[in-house]
Amino acid sequence: MNKNFIRKIVSAVAAAAILLPLAACGSGGGESSSSSSAQSSQPSGGEFVFGMQTQPDHLDPFLATTADTRSILFNLFEGLVKPDKDGNLIPAVAESCTMSDDALSYTFKIRKGIKFHNGKDVTAEDVKYSLDTAAGLSGGKALVADLTNMKSVEINDASTVTLHLKQADYEFLPYLTCAIIPKDYKEQDTHPIGTGPFEFESYTPQQSLVLKKNPDYWQKDLPKLDKVTFKLETDSNALLMDLQGGSVDGASIANNVASQVGKGFQLIQSNSNSVQLLGLNNAKKPFDNVKVRQAVSYAISPDEIISTVNDGKAVRAGTPVIPGLKKYFDSGLTHAYDQNTEKAKQLLSEAGYANGFAMTITVPSNYTVHVDTAQVIVSELKKAGITAQIKQVDFATWLSETYTQRNYEATIISVDGTTLSPRSYLGRYVSGASNNFVNYKSGEFDSVYKQAENEPSEDKRVQLYKQAQEILSKDAASVYIQDIANLNVLKDGLSGFTPYPLYVFDASVIQRTK
Amino acid sequence: MKFYLKKLLTLLLTMVLVSLMAFAAFNLIPGDPAQLILGTQATPAALAELHQKLGLDKSMPERYAGWLWSLLHGDMGTSLQYSRPVAELIGSRLPVTAALALLALLMIFTVSVPVGVLTAQKRGTPLGRLLDSVTMLNISMPGFFLGILFIWVFGLVLRFFSPGGYVSWEDDPAGFLRYMIFPSLAVALPNIAVSSKFLRSALVEESHADYVRTAVSKGLSRHIILYRHMLKNALIPFLTLSGMMVAEIFSGSILIEQVFGIPGVGRLLISSILSRDFPLLESLVVYIAFLVVLANFAADLLLQAADPRIRVKP
Q1: A360/A374 Cα distance (integer angstroms)
Q2: Does B237 contact chain A (CB < 8 Å)?
Q3: C-alpha neighbours within 13 Å on the C-beta side of residue B254
Q4: Per residue in A131-142, is it b (16+ CB within 10 Å) or e — as a string?
Q5: Helix and strand counts by DSSP (H, E) for chain A
Q6: Which of A195, A346, B182, B193 is the most exposed place for a label (fewest CB within 10 A)?
Q7: d(CA A49, CA B154)
Q8: Are β-strands A387-393 and A358-364 bridged in parallel, bridged antiparallel, or unpaired?
Q9: Residue A311 CB-half CA count within 13 A
């Protein structure tokens, strides 16, 4: 992998090095690595209002946790590296990166001329300060859990820093998307400052978060727009009304209202990059029996759920890794449990439940899609002799009772990852993991996962991660149903919406064509 | 004086009791604000730290006492969800809700009295029956439903305002009114119906009273009897109703703000419940309790002034 890894970085750096001077000369023809549009010569600018259903929890990038907040902050902050639309990492605040052979240290060269939104140059001190703060190396606690393997950050010279790790990690780069912020700046939570394509303008809780163009952004042809407003709405129906009434130009909407959007809009379908699963509590009877879990898996038809609940707008999963993470996703497992009611019944009787059993599926009531899925599952389980009932709880209750206290039999939720690493999705199945809410325990899985973590060769590592997915599938740790489509609506006359294999909304590439 | 002092004490006691009950209730239902803030990516260490930071590691009585103590010192605390001072959050929303409530009240008083009188006068006639049915229709349609109807007709079809949009008073007074008029109407209509129906029956009841018969036998004109005598008496119970109505207008506007997407106190309240944002929720509950008690108090005073026969027993 070593070679591949370096090659990826080198080629991205080379591309940026070639493109930047071009853009600086004012040709405007250089297409940035994350821009998907070829219309960059067209004048754009203008304002854009995007409707969102949830509220940002924090504006400080180290405190923000919800997927929607990360999605917004993606436009304000950048790490040493940043993800692109294809799931690669491209240099951002850093212009190059080298990993030591033993994978114990990573050296970054800071991009020349890159500035924070307050106009100050990014220095090695800023980088050290940011990483130390995030990893809890400057006295405080670690704010970004993924960085706990960091030992120290060393400043080599004004534009070079080296990161030292406690343990070798060949795959540490995805975590370095962690934001770089100005040293000793204390107002991130009220007036965030980063290096991203947009600058913060204002935030009014429950109303809007306004960003304006960063004129000094290092990708010279970005952003296309002058101003982006995230309008914070209460629910899907309110968003639909906003769209129809014209108070927003685009929105991320739920599957069940997609058909009502009407004329004058483009519907853009992409992956949500989360896997909806029927989580089975492996520590609770009868789900402590692998045969019962397999029987449940055979009883359910993901295709049926996709067509009835999501109008076909979803991708079948089969494993907890998102299909969009193509390199790691084991597509061979998608059909490991095609619906087979007879086989389900047979497995149940082998497990000693010839007459079936009764169970409860706990679902967070605010997610219509999970409630609807539960209804389909109940009718399918019935055919196999299992009587399931649905218990709806509000999300706060779901989080504390179901997710944290693991006090449930079965539940339905979509699980997403925070980085482009397969660990984001598979790490939670390690026996002692604090987020292992399905209580899965397997010595075999633990050892394969550990091996994968420490494997220097990328090819072998991918194989090991796939093997780990096979173990989860064989043990039917849970039923991995689908990656539900993420639907975005844009008013006609706007273009450039770019889906990512991460839950982010990249406003920098959106532009007006009319 | 003693009367006012007693009233003030009752007011304070009610607010403390209401806040205590709200605090207890929201601590009993499951759901941890820190867990909600951190979501599914939370680690136990991060959770513990956030608990400590937000003061959630303390016991419930301790937290309540702490909140009450700060409140007495003029500090409503910091919202867990928005990490901003609660006073600032409520302060920025208060003018919006107040404008909504005032507009609604204005509509209620200017419309329901004439309609009440008219329906009483015209009862039994075709016009009276029509007015009665309209009133019935308005009583049976809840405000939020009217709101949805208004959004559809005036927002989406007639494009009079853009649903979900809002401009502040400072930015554009005319635009502000355009956005507020339909929500206030949605709050006002059911209340107009209730109060005009109330006034109508009060007037009808008065018409059978002895003093009316005396007035008629004295040869006073119907007009003078109605406006000088009957209406004055009929308005007294109507005042009591108004006190209760203020409370209803505020609770009604919670839903209406949600429906129209107006950034008022109501929307803040709903989000504070969903996010288990205790400091914000507590302050809002106390604020609403305060308004309700105050409105009833004001109605009592008005009542006393209007009718000397009513003596509030100490």
Answers
A1: 10
A2: no
A3: 15
A4: bbbbbbbeeeeb
A5: 12, 20
A6: A346
A7: 22
A8: parallel
A9: 10
Tokens (6 digits) for A387: 């009587």
Interchain proximity A141–B258, CB inside 8 Å: no
- Assess A247–B contact: CB distance below 8 Å, yes or no: yes
Check A141 against B49: CB less than 8 A apart.
Answer: yes
Q: Going residue by residue through chain A, which has 514 residues, state the pLDDT in tens, using 9 for 90 and above.
A: 444 544 444 444 444 443 333 333 222 333 333 433 444 445 568 899 999 887 787 888 888 767 778 889 999 999 999 988 887 889 999 999 898 988 899 999 999 989 999 999 999 999 999 998 888 888 777 777 778 888 999 999 989 999 999 988 888 888 898 899 999 888 888 899 999 999 999 998 888 899 999 999 998 888 999 999 999 887 777 888 888 888 899 998 887 777 788 888 998 888 888 899 999 999 998 999 999 999 999 999 999 999 999 888 899 999 999 998 888 999 999 999 999 999 999 999 999 999 999 999 999 988 888 999 999 999 999 999 999 999 999 888 888 889 988 999 999 999 887 778 899 899 999 998 888 999 999 999 999 999 998 888 889 999 999 999 999 999 999 999 999 988 889 999 888 898 888 888 899 999 988 7
* Mutation to test the B interface, candidates A237, A400, A437, most B Cβ within 10 Å: A400
**B126-140 and B173-207 helices, crossing angle to 10°:** 120
Query: What residues in B contact A186, CB-CB < 8 Å?
Result: none
**Could A234 and B37 be called an inter-chain contact, meaning their C-beta atoms sit closer than 8 Å?**
no
Tell me the angle at which helices B278-306 and B231-260 cross, rounded to the nearest 10 degrees: 160
Contact A404 B35 (CB under 8 A): yes
SS (H, E, C) chain B: CHHHHHHHHHHHHHHHHHHHHHHHHHHHCCCCHHHHHHHHHCCHHHHHHHHHHHCCCCCHHHHHHHHHHHHHCCCCCECCCCCCEHHHHHHHHHHHHHHHHHHHHHHHHHHHHHHHHHHHHCCCCHHHHHHHHHHHHHHHCCHHHHHHHHHHHHHHHCCCCCCCCCCCCCCCHHHHHHHHHHHHHHHHHHHHHHHHHHHHHHHHHHHCCHHHHHHHHCCCCHHHHHHHHHHHHHHHHHHHHHHHHHHHHHHHHHHHHHHHCCCCHHHHHHHHHHCCCHHHHHHHHHHHHHHHHHHHHHHHHHHHHHCCCCCCCC
Block residue for tokens 């006068």:
B121
Which residue is closest to A208 within chain B, CA to CA?
B263
Instruction: Compute the distance between CA of residue A296 and CA of residue A340 in angstroms, rounded to an integer.
Output: 10
Mutation for B interface: A143, A147, A208, A234, most B CBs within 10 A: A234
Longest dimension (CA), chain A: 76
Asked if B156 and B147 touch (Cβ cutoff 8 Å), the reply is no
Q: Shortest Cα distance from A61 to chain B (angstroms)?
A: 13
What are B101-105's contacts with CB under 8 Å, separation 24+? B101/B187, B101/B246, B101/B249, B101/B250, B101/B253, B103/B180, B103/B181, B103/B184, B103/B188, B104/B184, B104/B185, B104/B187, B104/B188, B104/B191, B104/B249, B104/B253, B105/B188, B105/B246, B105/B249
In Å, the largest CA–CA distance within chain B is: 87
Q: Are A331 and A361 in contact (CB under 8 A)?
A: no
Cα B24 to chain center, whole Å?
24
E strand spans, A75-159: 81-83, 89-91, 94-99, 105-110, 150-157
Of B201, B185, B234, the closest CA to residue B132 belongs to B201
Q: What is the 3-state secondary structure (H, E, C) of A304-357?
A: HHHHHHCCCCEEECCCCCCCCCCCCCCHHHCCCCCCCHHHHHHHHHHCCCCCCC
